[in-house]
Amino acid sequence: MRVPMDEVANETELYSRFIDPFLTGLFDDPDQGICLRWINDATLEAKAYADFTINRPDLCITKCCGVKWKSSLANGEAKPANSEKDRFALCNDLLKVAVFCKDGLDHQLMQGMLAIQIIGRTIKFYLLILPAKGLYVMLELATIKIPDSLQGLLRFVPELPNVLKILDVFHRVCVPVIDVASAKNRYTPTLPRQKFDQLFTISKDRKKPCHLKIRRN
Known about the structure:
Elements: H1 11-27, E1 34-38, H2 44-48, E2 59-65, E3 68-79, H3 87-108, E4 112-119, E5 122-132, E6 135-145, H4 153-156, H5 160-173, H6 180-186, H7 193-197
């Protein structure tokens, strides 16, 4: 029987060995021009608009038109498993992903954007939508833990309904809006980064109580 590794995979190993094969299998669709990309580059919105965030997502799901990237459908951030107790870093990552998706939703006139937060082999999926003027809502869809070996695949079977739910939401909601005029009327400018920084203490106390709970099986 295989004994689980007692070593923590760094970010590069995490991407290549565990996360990328799973997410690529879910979302990559070359026939539709949809690709999951590990970019560490400015978003399409930031390149087009100077007042958008200059932060860079670790990953994005992008749709192309011809030979050019056309729009972003999802954004994500990743941290290795040994960062799971670093509440400052995890909350900051979640905020960054929310801002990436909010900017993408506004600029690209989307019904919704998929947000992805990765901690070790645990992946949390969120959906950002705009149901009313100025009311941006990020809903948690599911939390999925990727098995680290073939022996762990059996424990992954109960996650299949969540996988199907995520795919359904992605293909049904992460699409352009139909009523453009109504959508534009609901949009609100993104707050400056200085406003968001007020949510975090300068001390970066990792042990400070936090409403976010990351549980590992």
